[in-house]
Amino acid sequence: MTTSVQSSTSSTAAATAAATTAAAASQLAATQDRFLTLLVTQLQNQDPLNPMDNSQVTSQMAQLSTVSGINQLNATVQALSASMTSSQSLQATTMIGHAVLVPGNQIVMAKGSSNAAVELSQPADKLTVTISDAKGNVVRTLQVGAQKAGIVDFQWDGKDDSGTTLADGTYTYTASATLGSSTSTPTTLTYGMVNSVSLTSGGAQINVGNLGDVALDEVRRIL
User: What is the C-alpha to C-alpha distance for residues 203 and 90, in angstroms, rounded to an integer?
Assistant: First the structure.
């Protein structure tokens, strides 16, 4: 299954790169044709008593060379971008069937256990996680304590603040961090399973179940 997806993704990316290169070459040829047509017309209609000197012709040819060079550079950059997208897509297909940690506020309770994480941009003296049910009611407040900057994992035992075990299902959560007298809102992270890979104009994206499409640069961890 993965091999088939990789082959399909590679073919699509290769076709995109070929189309990009062909379009750039066509544009370059059209630019050169227009320039040469204008130059020939100018030479044919010049004043015989005041013809163009060699420096003028040389200057215009140099302008054509500059335009051609810029177009060729653009074509090279576009082809390189398409190649990088192809490579990125192939790498992304290896994630299918794996769990990933991405930005999100869902926390799934299953068999009395659940895991999630937050990302701190700076250290925290106190990290608080607030979990709510589907109706938005707060069911549990976790004190995670002092933490260093970076990704902080935490577990929830599925119980509310009174110690009652709650039903399995999907809950949501928020987090707040305190450092000295300042308070910040960390990025909440959630786990999901990669179902498929999509190739878009912005690059490869992975589909993570209920979390939807996620860009590769948003993946914080792969299990």
Answer: 12
